[in-house]
Design goal:
By secondary structure, the chain is of the alpha+beta class. Among the domains are: about 110 residues, 2-Layer Sandwich (Uridine Diphospho-n-acetylenolpyruvylglucosamine Reductase, domain 3); about 190 residues, FAD-linked oxidase, cap domain/gating helix (Vanillyl-alcohol Oxidase, Chain A, domain 3). It is about 30% helix and about 25% strand. An eight-stranded antiparallel sheet has the order 14-11-13-12-18-19-16-21. Strands 5, 6, 7, 8, 9 and 10 form a six-stranded antiparallel sheet that branches. The chain has a four-stranded mixed sheet with strand order 1-2-4-3, sandwiched between helices. A hairpin with a 5-residue loop joins strand 18 and strand 19. The longest helix is centred in the N-terminal third of the chain and has 14 residues. The protein is globular, with a radius of gyration of 22 Å. Bound molecules: flavin-adenine dinucleotide. Flavin-adenine dinucleotide (FAD) binds next to strand 3, helix 6, strand 10 and helix 10. The site of flavin-adenine dinucleotide has 38 residues, from strand 3, helix 6, strand 10 and helix 10.
């Protein structure tokens, strides 16, 4: 069957070299950063697709999906494979649909909307946008590698979210074309509210093939770090900057000690025993920021211009989920959670967590705006892994004290992702993929005709 599948797929793309079945290549294309989770690591390590194929246009993609549909073969889309929790790991074999070659930037419209294919790298888009006076509203810390399609299907927000919210907010994702897994597959344009059927659904209910992604006018940014004696001081200073509408910022991050000690390549900006705030601020506001920081007891330990994705050091490489990577490098027993603290009583929540878990729960705050225009302390705390039971205890306790948790230690959308309570992603799956062939097993509320997810 496998050699038959490879042979048939080779007929469907212009160059058979884009059908890949070498075991090492398949293994690479079947995995992402699932190994961040000590729970998922043993579950997903051996899962692979049977064959990978790299379409270069929608015509090839439609032919591949027609073929897969005819034979009821699972199809798992993949961008750059930087996702967490095995979003693009095929649980039931089949075809890995590698979209990295569909990477054309068609245009940036005069009103600042990028029109592109899904495989376009975010760093390329940021660079091209800045040349025309625009920049990304938000991007994950994996900017250099991650694709636009993978970000929309698997990510949620990142650098820029403190000003512009998450991907689902403020009409940032204007529209996209989606190829369905119906019989036969169709190209369906989603725009306005309809994008939420497919956004952050991990490729379980359609393949994004053409995207309209809103940008924002480019700003001259300075990245800087500020050390504080205590986490409380660092947090309060950062919150004032994040919330204050007079500050133009792209990133406001706070780490309690010892998290900064994990950042070996930038150890010159770290002060022993101190918490660290890391910001991107509009360059004309740097002086005012320094004065405000000093008045709050902070020491500016570094400031330099952001000149685009190739800036060195690129401080965002230490933020969002990159922080977890540095922690795991320092000590593999660290892992992480994805949390949202209450803007009103987060300090009480911090206190309760410290009392219960001591320094096995370290605070890493990423301020972000929500869809109601409120800046909240989002967080990717670094937590000590001992057993799955204790990890689940941490998650349960967080939720019991009002801390939102998207659990990164499960492999399905309903608990790990931002599954919508109005069920529109599920209804879109029932409509566009009734046989359950797209990234099967990741939307567990969907039951296909065999009665399995
Ligand atoms: C170190 C590190 C830091 C990170 N920081 C952030 C962060 O700051 N913010 C954030 O939101 N995320 C973050 N992530 C998660 C991840 O990087 C982002 O979600 C990223 O945008 C994924 O892009 P990708 O191209 O690698 O997607 P992939 O990992 O390839 O795919 C992600 C999901 O989208 C699906 N998919 C891919 N392309 C398509 C398509 N065209 N149509 C339909 N479905 C598709 C895949 O099946 C998969 O389910 C981080 C991950 C790591 C490892």
């Amino acid at each position: 069957m496998l050699s038959g599948m490879t042979a048939e797929l080779s007929q469907l793309v212009a160059d058979p070299a884009r059908v890949l079945s070498a075991p090492a290549v398949l293994d690479r294309l079947s995995h992402d950063f699932y190994w961040y989770s000590p729970v998922l690591r043993p579950l997903l390590a051996t899962k692979t697709g049977d064959v990978a194929v790299q379409p270069i246009n929608t015509g090839e993609l439609l032919a591949i999906l027609r073929f897969a549909g005819r034979h009821e073969i699972p199809v798992t889309p993949r961008g750059a494979g930087t996702g967490n929790y095995g979003q693009c790991v095929p649980l039931h074999g089949g075809i890995v649909l590698d979209l990295s070659l569909m990477d054309r930037l068609e245009e940036i419209t005069p009103d600042g909307v990028a029109v592109c294919q899904p495989g376009l790298r975010l760093a390329v888009l940021e660079t091209e946008a800045r040349k025309k006076g625009w920049e990304l509203r938000m991007y994950p810390s994996t900017l250099a590698k991650a694709s636009v399609g993978g970000f929309l299907a698997g990510g949620s927000g990142g650098i820029g979210s403190v000003a512009h919210g998450g991907l689902r907010d403020f009409d940032t994702v204007r529209a996209f074309e989606v190829v369905t897994m119906e019989d036969p597959p169709r190209v369906v344009l989603h725009q306005g509210a309809a994008v939420h059927e497919i956004l952050h659904a991990w490729g379980t209910n359609g393949i994004l093939t053409r995207i309209w992604f809103a940008l924002t006018p480019a700003i001259e940014w300075t990245q800087c770090t500020i050390a504080f004696d205590t986490f409380d001081r660092a947090f309060r200073f950062s919150r004032d900057i994040a919330v204050g509408s007079e500050w133009t910022k792209r990133l406001v991050t706070v780490f309690e000690w010892p998290i900064p000690s994990f950042f070996m390549p930038i150890k010159q900006v770290v002060r022993d025993g101190k918490s660290l705030a890391l910001l991107m601020i509009a360059t004309p506001q740097l002086e005012a920021l320094s004065t405000t920081a000093q008045a709050a007891g902070g020491e500016i330990t570094f400031a330099s211009a952001f000149t685009g994705p190739r800036t060195q050091p690129l401080l965002s490489d230490y933020t969002w989920n990159h922080t977890t990577l540095w922690a795991m490098k320092a000590d593999p027993s660290w892992t992480y959670l994805q949390c949202g603290f209450s803007p009103d009583n987060c300090e009480e929540q911090f206190h309760l967590l410290r009392t219960r878990y001591g320094h096995d729960f370290l605070f890493h705050i990423e301020f972000m705006k929500n869809g109601d225009n409120v800046v909240i302390p989002g967080a990717i705390p670094i937590v000590r892994f001992t057993t799955e039971e204790r990890l689940n205890d941490m998650i349960g306790y967080c939720r019991s004290i009002g801390v939102f948790v998207a659990n990164p230690h499960v492999n399905y959308l309903e608990d790990a992702g931002r599954f919508r309570t109005d069920n529109i992603q599920l209804r879109a799956k029932q409509k566009y993929d009734p046989r359950g062939l797209l990234n099967p097993g990741k939307m567990i509320s969907f039951l296909k005709h065999t009665g399995t997810p």
